[in-house]
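[recover] target loaded
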């Protein structure tokens, strides 16, 4: 623990996942201790960021109200600062977006488009509601959204999603990251939270050792082996738990605030 506290003294910026880290995904509950933690970090001059698989429109009002300094969204493909200025912008090429849509249609999979600040779904049914509604509410249906909008990420959606295999022609361009039994994020091959957070640090002129991350899911695994600290929530994916520097309590047990106190970052 003393070694972790020593490393924690180097922390200058902390990124937080949203779902089941800052708030409970299924209920939307976020404890008051999260607001308290952000206030204390701000007073100590420690920067904060959101690092999420959601796009910007999916960053719920209570998280925006925390006033983080950066938003790393769509698994690192679109980054803005607290003033809304674009820090990084990496959409699919129009050709790649259409090729992915054609493949998903050929394997009987529905799909969701992530624009920079809006979403569209190919079809709206029970399976799609089960995966998406709790996060985004009702999505507009537009199977051709990609033809008139930039696309930063596509989600596959089907009852056979676990059986889908990405065709070889895509394997040097994108990869699939599971987040739901019936859905995977399809992200650029070099696009993830890790790269997004590194872009922010590079812009700030900070070393990787000065970063700390909180997360729980498979799309947080890329962050675990960075030189900075990684804190996993108690309910995290098994691989995340195994590789984390520190494991804290669940959201409803004030896990974020407790970890920051126990590591000596705030009081």
């Amino acid at each position: 623990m003393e070694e972790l506290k020593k490393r924690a003294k180097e922390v200058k910026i902390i990124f937080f996942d949203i779902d089941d880290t800052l708030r409970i995904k299924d209920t939307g509950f976020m404890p008051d201790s999260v607001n308290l933690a952000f206030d204390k970090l701000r007073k100590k001059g420690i920067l904060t960021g959101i690092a999420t698989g959601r796009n910007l429109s999916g960053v719920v009002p209570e998280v925006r109200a925390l006033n983080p300094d950066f938003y790393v969204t769509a698994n690192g493909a679109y980054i803005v600062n607290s003033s809304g200025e674009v820090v990084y912008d990496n959409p699919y090429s129009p050709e790649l977006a259409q090729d992915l849509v054609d493949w998903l249609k050929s394997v009987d999979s529905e799909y969701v488009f992530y624009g920079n600040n809006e979403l569209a779904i190919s079809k709206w049914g029970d399976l799609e509601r089960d995966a998406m509604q709790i996060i985004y509410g009702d999505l507009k249906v537009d199977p051709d959204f990609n033809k008139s909008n930039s696309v930063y990420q596509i989600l596959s959606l089907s009852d056979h999603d676990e059986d889908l295999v990405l065709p070889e022609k895509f394997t040097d361009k994108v990869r699939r990251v599971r987040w739901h039994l019936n859905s995977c994020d399809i992200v650029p091959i070099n696009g993830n939270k890790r790269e997004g957070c590194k872009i922010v640090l590079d812009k700030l002129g900070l070393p990787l050792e000065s970063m700390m991350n909180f997360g729980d899911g498979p799309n947080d695994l890329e962050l675990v082996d960075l030189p900075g600290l990684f804190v996993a929530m108690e309910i995290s994916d098994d691989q995340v738990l195994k590789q984390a520097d520190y494991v804290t309590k669940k959201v409803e047990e004030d896990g974020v605030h407790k970890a920051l106190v126990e590591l000596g970052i705030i009081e």
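[recover] notes: The first helix runs from residue 2 to 8.
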